[in-house]
Amino acid sequence: MIYSQHTDPIICVPQHISRYGMYSAHLFLLNAICNYMYNYNSITFIGVLLYITTMLHWYKIQNTGIIKYIDVTTSIVSLSSITFYESSFFCPSHRLIWFGSAFVSVVAYLINKYIEYYQQHFNGSVYFMDNEPYRYFVLKYTRPNTLQRELSYKYSAYIHIILLHANLVCACVYGVVNSPSCANYY
After folding, report:
1. What is the 3-state secondary structure (H, E, C) of the chain?
2. Rg (Cα) of the chain, in Å, rounded?
3. Is the pTM of this model over 0.85?
4. pLDDT tens, position by position, for the chain (186 residues)?
5. Which residues contact 132 (CB under 8 A, 6 or more apart)?
6. What pLDDT is recorded for position 2?
7. C-alpha distances in angstroms, 96 versus 24, 84, 161, 183?
């Protein structure tokens, strides 16, 4: 069976999988709206930029390119801005939730990239056999145009979407929406 875009040298994740990242990008818009409603103006602006760059990037995820670098830079600026400045306006318990979520997201990103490298880019001598079932945490190379490579793309994208996009947006919205009730801390 031939899978779509497995051998394309430009595209990093097939578009039929990356569309889910486009869907999850709407969470960044929701976050920006919540930030605007609660007067977190700097991360409102960054959130709108993050929404735009994520939509452009996940439309056609490429290995390199100006859109990818702008999206990564916007993501880092957003994460840093919330962690080092805006979270200081959260309740202490909500700030801990944000720090925990950010830590989980960074660790998940690094592990996901490590596994993705071995399964999709490192063409070593250890690889999945054609009839072998796919397992996410196995550091074996997946051949293009196989079910294992397709599942590798899917798991990698889903882990990214859930543990980065959804996790961080939920933690930020929770901190922003619930922190006015902690006004007596300041």
Report:
1. CCCCCCCCCCECCCHHHHHHHHHHHHHHHHHHHHHHHCCCHHHHHHHHHHHHHHHHHHHCCECCCHHHHHHHHHHHHHHHHHHHCHHHHCCHHHHHHHHHHHHHHHHHHHHHHHHHHHHHHCCCCCECCCCCCCCCCCCCECCCCCHHHHHHHHHHHHHHHHHHHHHHHHHHHHHHHHHHHHHHHC
2. 18
3. yes
4. 567 777 777 888 999 999 999 999 999 999 999 999 999 999 999 999 999 999 999 999 988 899 999 999 999 999 999 999 999 999 999 999 999 999 999 999 999 999 999 999 887 778 888 889 999 999 999 988 899 999 999 999 999 999 999 999 999 999 999 987 776 555
5. 148
6. 66
7. 24, 12, 22, 17
For the record, the structure tokens of 102 come out as 């950010």
**Residue keyed to tokens 């902690």:** 182
Encoded tokens for 43: 């991360």
C-alpha to C-alpha distance for 78 and 129, rounded to whole angstroms: 41
DSSP bridge pairs for 62: 11
Question: Which pairs with CB-CB distance under 8 Å and at least 24 residues apart come from 16-20?
Answer: 17/153, 17/154, 17/157, 18/58, 18/59, 18/60, 18/61, 18/157, 19/58, 20/157, 20/158, 20/161
